[in-house]
Every structure is written in C-alpha cells, then in structure tokens.
Amino acid sequence: MDLSISSSWLSVSPPPFLFNSNNNFILNPLFRNSNFDYRNFQIKPLVSRQNRPIRCQVFDHTASTDGFVLDDVPHLTNFLPDLPSYPNPLQKSQAYAVVKKTFVSPEDVVTQRIVIQKDSPRGAHFRRAGPREKVYFKPEDVCACIVTCGGLCPGINTVIREIVCGLNYMYGVDNILGIEGGYRGFYSKNTMTLNPKVVNDIHKRGGTFLRTSRGGHDTHKIVDNIEDRGINQVYIIGGDGTQKGAALIYKVIDKSFGFDTAVEEAQRAINAAHVEVESVENGVGIVKLMGRYSGFIAMYATLASRDVDCCLIPESPFYLEGQGGLFEFIEQRLKENGHMVIVVAEGTGQDYVSQSTPAVDEKDASGNRLLLDIGHWLTQKIKDHFTNIQKMTINMKYIDPTYMIRAIPSNASDNIYCTLLAQSAVHGAMAGFTGFTVGPVNNRHAYIPISHVTETQKTVKLTDRMWARLLASTNQPIFLHSSDKSQDSVDNEANETIDNMKITSI
Question: 272 with 400: CB under 8 angstroms?
C-alpha cells in the first residue's frame, strides 16, 4: 500500500546515459547506431547530488542560512549542457491566466524538517514541484508511456487519467502509450494508445485500467523496448516493490495516495465488527488491515473509529499471556463492556506466529516476504485461551477486508491528491527533471530523488505523539513485560525496546 508516483526520463534528443536498476550509468541504446562519441562524452557532475546531500551551490548564503542543503534531482542539462529550452505553453493557457504566479521559481524549495531550533542547521530541502517557465520538450517530440506495477491501491486510475490529461491539455502531447500488465508489458509488446477520451471515466473504477503484475523488471529488455518505441518519458506508478525497478521511495514523503480512501473504507469493516460483537455476549471482533511492514492504516483507522479497544501493529511488539498481556486486557474489557474490537495490521507478530506455525521462507514476485496469517492465528489463540483456560464462553468475529479496500475507487480527498501528484510529475518531466518521485513534504509537493535507495519503509514511530494519542484513545497496554520488576526497570525496558525498533519514514 505504500504507493507513490515517479517520473523518470530515458531519452530526450536523446540523453546518452541511463540509470540501470542498480543506479549505475549505462549507455542509452538509442546511441548504439548513432554518430554519438560516447567514449569521449564527459558527464557533467550533479553539483547538488552525488548520493549524499551537499551544501547548496545555487543560492546566496548568509550567516542566517548556514546549514542549508539542497537534495536535488538530476536534470537533462547535467548530461547535455547545450540542450535547447522552449517557452512553457502554459503561458498561453486560459486555466493559468488568472494565476498570480504561473511558474515555480527556480529558487523555490521545500524544507524536510518543518520544526527546527533557533541555532540549528536548516537541513535538507527539495525542489518544489510545479510548472517551470522553460520546458525541454516540444509537444510533437514527446512519446510518453505509463505503467502500473505491484499491488492495487485506490487512486491508481485517477493518476493514470490525470497524467494523460495533463500531458495533452497542458502541454499538447498526443503520443501517449499505456504499458499493460506491469514491467513485463514493456517487452511483451502489450500497449494501448491513451488520450483524454480513452481515460475519461476510469477514475470511477477501482483497480488499474492498465492491469498490473509483480516483478518482471528486466532492465535490458525494458530499455531495448523503450528504444524500439522511441519513448522519452516514462511514468511509473506503484509501491515499494515497483520502485525497486527504478529505485526506491524516499523516506520523506508524507503519505501515499490511496491512504485516505483505505482508512475511510476500513471504518466500514471496523463498524461491522463493532455491531457484531456488541450484539452478542462476550463478543470479540478482530479486523485485519493492510500493513506489511508498518501500521499506519491500522493506527489511523483506529483513531478515526473510536470503537477500537486495541490496535496491534508490526512496529510494536505484543505478548499474550501474563501481566500486561493481551489476554489480560481482553478479559478486563469484557468485564467492563461485554465486548471488544481488535485491529491488527497484517505484518504484526510474524516472529510470534512462526513459533506455532511453520514459517515459509518465500517471497512474492515483488520481493516481499510471504506473511503468516496473524488474523486467523490470533483468533484461534484467543478462542482457545478463554474456552479452555478461563472457561469463558466468547463469540469470536473475524473480518479481513483487505482486497475490498484495495479494489475500490479513490474518494474525493485522494482524487484531488492524485491530480496534484500526476500534474506535478508532468510538469517536472516537461521541465527536464528526471529520476524523481513526486510526493508531499510538509504538505508541499516536491521532487525527491529516486536515486535515494532506501533500506526500509516508513514505519510508525513509537516515540511520536501520534502513537501516544492512539494509546490514550484505546487505553490499551504497551505490552512490556513488567512482572517482578521495579518501575525503573520497566521504564528502562520500554526505552530499550523503543530504541531497538527499526524506525524510519516513507
């Protein structure tokens, strides 16, 4: 579900080098049969990006701006310094005629950290997304393609639609291809011609209009096919597995598209579980939500619902038996309210489940580890404990709405968000930027380098206030073993547990 949109160039006029799947430069196949002397070609250094942030070389510095860093994305002129530019056709657009400032200034940046101390360095910044005064493509020279890969998510069709409409309406591009069936579609010759009429109402449907698949990223086959088709703009829509083909999603993006829709739809499942357990004696409802490595959907759905008694996520370990354990908490809630609802993210407690269920060390085509079913396991454990040990009659209700959530169309909030992402990607590609992911950083859209190869996904930070708000809302335990320990030792264990958590960002 951790989905983003990225836009990457592969050739323009055309550029001599590409990034392969390992982020190394390779010769663009478009030059194999040309007179281009690649042996004597000198790559212009990316002065603001060499696999690490460096002090910005563009802006004036004073004492007050010490510590300013621009984490930049590549531009075509880094490779072709004499590449010609053209006036942006939006200068004549009626839609932008009333905009006070039509184009984003070259000096506009978005800060990664919105809260800093008075004397601390300003830190990393990213280029603000949006239309530029100059573009590096003529409309008639553009051959763009769009591909969707990996698992489904609400909003994919909206992104496809808005890329097509943005290219056509704003920049006059007519040559747009849809690559069908994920990365494999590049070399399986599965394509369709896209235009605003073809994609007019696809945002009302769930899934992906272009179909999808996992894996299939064969760099050489894909590049060869791009050469054959004369494609010079590639828009890749997908999540963590998808971005591994181009690079990975960077950790600073605020959220993925489809998130609001997923949280909203999860409310239906939680509400259904609450109605069920409230109508029977000692009702216990378990709702399993998406979240292979992180519990954001589970956490936000819990906070939004107010009917959830306990939220279990991959980032926060839990245990069943003993003081402060889940069984004790369930018994307490049943005595107080006569029912309870538990929300659990799909990746929760995998090490725990594997102790009683043989783990299969396999991965899917996207490279994701296959998960054990925490929902069924937890349901059975609770049932066995209270029936056989506590001698209590309980009514278990288990709901797994995962595929229902993934397959629905995006809601109004996500439709707007997808439009902003798609248009920002189009603006960036037309302006000559490349190798970037579009995403909101502190609620401002920015171009983030996909040359950032991340080791982990964004996970819930247990030391942040949002998790504290959830604990305060549900009044659930923090699941730290506290028997036979002083309060100081419990606090130390809590700090040690939190310190040892793998805490990163999307």
Answer: no
- Going by pLDDT thresholds of 50, 70 and 90, the confidence category of residue 214 is confident
Whether the CB-CB separation of 171 and 235 falls below 8 Å is answered with no
Please say whether the beta carbons of 434 and 75 come within 8 A: yes
> Between 99 and 497, whose confidence is greater?
99
Q: What b/e readout covers 448-475, taking b as 16+ CB neighbours within 10 angstroms?
A: bbbbbebeebbbbebeeeebeebeeebe
For a pLDDT cut of 90, what percent of the chain falls above it?
35
- Residues in Cβ contact with 75 at an 8 Å cutoff, skipping those fewer than 6 apart: 432, 433, 434
Closest listed residue to residue 432, CA positions, set 47, 122, 204, 133 = 133
Per-residue model confidence (pLDDT) at position 52: 36
**E strand or H helix at 127:** strand 123-128
pTM above 0.90, yes or no: no
| 422: CB partners within 8 A, 6+ apart | 5, 158, 159, 161, 162, 163, 166
CB 193 within 8 A of CB 177: yes
131-141: pLDDT as tens digits: 999 999 999 99
The neighbour count for residue 232, using CB atoms within 10 Å, is: 22
Which tokens go with 498? 């939190």
In the predicted model, is pLDDT for residue 72 greater than 70? Answer: yes
